[in-house]
C-alpha cells in the first residue's frame, strides 16, 4: 500500500511559514509523503491560515469551496485548517465548510497527525483549539524548505496591544525560549550545512522580557557570532519601543550579524501612533535610524507602513511621507488599513473612505519606489559577496543568470560563473546596474567560494526528488530561500 500524500498551503508571515515546516515534519514523521508536483490533489490538504488581512476569511472559504467537489469524489481525502484564522473562528469553520475534517489552533500544531487519525476513525470533524502553548514548537520535527538557510524561533506570542492587530489575542502572551536551547538548535543546523539563520519572534527584540533579562537579545546576537560556520545572522521583526543601544552595538560588533534591519514604522504621525497604541513617536523612530546608520553606514533598512488608519488626516499622512523621506528606507511593505473584527480600531470613528486610502497609498508607493531606486543606485560599482539562492530569480533560466542575496539582503541577479555554483555557495560580484527592487552584476564573477551549505544542497538533491510539501503563496524578502515577503513584521505587518 502506497503512503498517503500531503500538501500544506501557507498564508501569512514568516512565523506561519516556519510553522508549516513543522507541520510538514510532523506529517512525514507520521508516514505521509509530499504530494508529487502536478498531481491531482493530495490525500491530506492542510491550510495554515492568517487572520491579519481583511480578505483572509474570504480567501480561506473560497479555497475550501474549490476542494469540496474534489473531496466528494475522492474517498479518504482529508482537509485540515490551522493557524491564526482557525484560532479565531474555531467552530465557525466547520459550520461554513462541513467537509473540513480537522481544525487546530496556533498553540497545538503538534496534534495534527493525531487529530487526522481521530477524524478518520470517528468519521466526524475534530476541532481542538488550545488556549495556551502546550510545548514550544521548536521541539517538533521540521521539514526545512532550504538546505542552506533556516528560521529559528526565539519566542512566540506578543505583549503589545496595538489597536489594529488581532495577533496577540491569537498567539498569546510572549513566551521566550532559553538561550541555551536556541544556540543548541543553531549549532545543530550549522552542523547540517546551514550557514544563514533568521531569528524569529512576533516582537523579536523584546526577547528576554519573559526570562527577566533586558539585554538578552543583544547577548544572543553576540553569542551567534561565536558559532563557527555560521556566516549570516538576521532577525525579524523588532519593535521600536524595545530597540535599545546595546542591540545596535551588538549588531555592529558581530561580523556575522548582517547590516540589515527591518524596523516597522506603521505611521509617521504622532497622533496616529498614539491611536495605534504604538509606544514611540516620530522623533524616537528617526533617532533609532540615525544611531543604526552611525554604527553601520551601509545598513539597508526596511519597514512596514499602514495607510488610512481611522482618523488619519492629510496632515498625518504628510508626516508619514516626511518620515519616509528622512529614513531613506531600502524597501517598505505598505498596507492599506484593513478593518479586523475584534480589534479596537475596527470600531473607531473616522474610518477613511476607500478612495482616499487608495490615493494616499499610491502616493506613498511612488515616493518609496523613487527612494528605493536612488538607494540602490548607490550600490553600483560596489563589490559584494552574494549567497546563491534557490527560487529567487524567476527569469534566471532565460537570462543565463543566477540570483542571491547580498549581506544587506538586497536581491542581486548576476551572470552565471564559468565554475559550477550551487545554492548556498558564495559568489563575489561587482554591481553594474540598479533597479528599484533588485541589482544586476553583469560582468564575470570576481570570486566563487564553494561552501558546506552548497554541499548540503547537493546532498539533498542527490536523493530521489521529493517535491516540497509546503506551498508558500507569497513573494520573497530574503533569508531562508525562498522567504515570504508579506509583512516582515513577525506574525503580522504590525510589529
Fold and architecture overview:
- By secondary structure, the chain is of the alpha/beta class.
- The protein has helices at 14-29, 56-72, 84-89, 91-96, 112-122, 167-171, 179-191, 216-224, 245-253, 270-276, 282-295, 314-327, 354-377, 396-399, 452-462, and strands spanning 5-10, 33-34, 44-49, 78-83, 102-104, 126-128, 149-153, 155-156, 175-176, 196-200, 232-236, 260-262, 300-307, 331-336, 383-388, 401-405, 411-415, 426-430, 433-434, 439-441, 447-449, 470-472.
- The longest helix is centred in the C-terminal third of the chain and has 24 residues, at 354-377.
- Mean pLDDT is 87; it is low at 467-491.
- Helices cover 34% and strands 19% of the residues.
- The radius of gyration is 22 Å and the shape is globular.
- Helix 12 (314-327) runs parallel beside helix 13.
Number of helices: 15
Query: What structural class do helix, strand and pairing data support?
Result: alpha/beta
Distance between the termini: 47 Å
What multimeric state do the chains show? single chain
Radius of gyration: 22 Å
**Tally of extended strands?**
22
The pLDDT mean sits at 87
Helical content (DSSP H or I, runs of 4+): 25-40%
What summary fits the major beta sheet? 7 strands, parallel
Low-confidence stretches: 467-491
Shape: globular
- Tell me the β content: 15-25%
Amino acid at each position: 500500500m502506497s503512503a498517503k500524500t500531503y500538501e500544506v498551503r501557507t498564508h501569512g508571515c514568516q512565523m506561519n511559514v516556519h510553522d508549516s515546516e513543522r507541520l510538514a515534519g510532523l506529517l512525514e514523521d507520521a508516514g505521509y509523503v509530499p504530494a508529487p508536483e502536478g498531481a491531482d490533489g493530495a490525500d491530506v490538504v492542510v491550510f495554515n491560515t492568517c487572520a491579519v488581512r481583511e480578505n483572509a476569511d474570504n480567501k480561506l472559504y473560497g479555497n475550501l469551496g474549490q476542494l469540496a467537489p474534489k473531496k466528494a469524489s475522492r474517498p479518504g481525502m482529508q482537509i485540515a485548517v490551522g493557524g491564526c484564522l482557525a484560532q479565531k473562528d474555531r467552530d465557525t469553520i466547520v459550520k461554513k465548510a462541513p467537509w473540513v475534517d480537522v481544525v487546530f489552533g496556533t498553540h497545538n500544531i503538534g496534534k495534527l497527525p493525531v487529530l487526522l487519525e481521530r477524524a478518520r476513525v470517528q468519521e466526524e470533524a475534530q476541532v481542538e483549539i488550545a488556549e495556551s502553548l502546550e510545548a514550544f514548537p521548536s521541539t517538533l520535527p521540521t521539514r526545512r524548505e532550504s538546505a542552506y538557510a533556516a528560521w529559528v524561533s526565539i519566542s512566540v506570542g506578543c505583549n503589545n496591544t496595538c489597536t489594529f492587530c488581532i495577533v496577540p489575542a491569537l498567539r498569546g502572551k510572549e513566551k521566550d525560549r532559553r538561550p541555551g536551547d536556541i544556540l543548541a538548535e543553531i549549532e545543530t543546523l550549522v552542523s547540517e550545512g546551514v550557514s544563514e539563520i533568521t531569528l524569529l519572534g512576533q516582537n523579536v527584540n523584546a526577547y528576554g522580557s519573559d526570562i527577566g533579562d533586558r539585554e538578552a537579545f543583544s547577548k544572543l546576537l553576540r553569542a551567534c557570532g561565536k558559532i563557527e560556520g555560521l556566516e549570516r545572522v538576521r532577525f525579524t521583526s523588532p519593535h521600536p519601543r524595545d530597540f535599545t543601544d546595546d542591540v545596535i552595538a551588538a549588531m555592529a560588533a558581530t561580523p556575522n550579524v548582517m547590516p540589515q534591519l527591518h524596523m516597522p514604522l506603521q505611521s509617521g504621525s504622532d497622533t496616529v501612533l498614539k491611536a495605534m497604541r504604538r509606544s514611540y513617536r516620530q522623533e524616537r523612530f528617526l533617532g533609532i535610524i540615525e544611531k543604526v546608520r552611525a554604527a553601520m553606514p551601509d545598513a539597508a533598512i526596511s519597514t512596514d507602513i499602514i495607510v488610512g488608519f481611522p482618523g488619519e488626516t492629510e496632515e498625518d499622512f504628510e508626516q508619514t511621507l516626511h518620515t519616509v523621506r528622512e529614513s531613506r528606507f531600502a524597501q517598505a511593505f505598505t498596507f492599506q488599513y484593513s478593518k479586523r473584527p475584534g480589534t479596537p480600531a475596527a470600531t473607531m470613528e473616522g474610518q477613511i473612505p476607500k478612495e482616499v486610502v487608495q490615493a494616499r497609498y499610491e502616493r506613498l508607493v511612488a515616493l518609496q519606489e523613487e527612494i528605493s531606486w536612488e538607494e540602490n543606485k548607490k550600490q553600483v560599482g560596489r563589490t559584494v559577496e552574494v549567497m546563491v539562492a534557490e527560487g529567487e530569480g524567476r527569469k534566471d533560466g532565460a537570462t543565463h543568470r543566477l540570483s542571491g542575496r547580498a549581506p544587506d539582503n538586497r536581491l542581486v541577479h548576476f551572470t552565471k560563473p564559468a565554475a559550477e555554483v550551487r545554492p548556498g555557495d558564495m559568489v563575489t560580484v561587482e554591481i553594474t546596474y540598479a533597479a528599484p527592487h533588485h541589482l544586476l552584476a553583469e560582468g564575470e564573477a570576481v570570486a566563487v567560494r564553494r561552501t558546506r551549505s552548497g554541499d548540503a544542497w547537493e546532498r539533498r538533491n542527490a536523493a530521489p526528488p521529493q517535491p516540497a510539501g509546503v506551498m508558500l503563496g507569497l513573494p520573497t524578502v530574503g533569508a531562508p530561500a525562498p522567504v515570504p515577503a508579506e509583512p516582515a513584521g513577525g506574525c503580522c505587518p504590525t510589529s
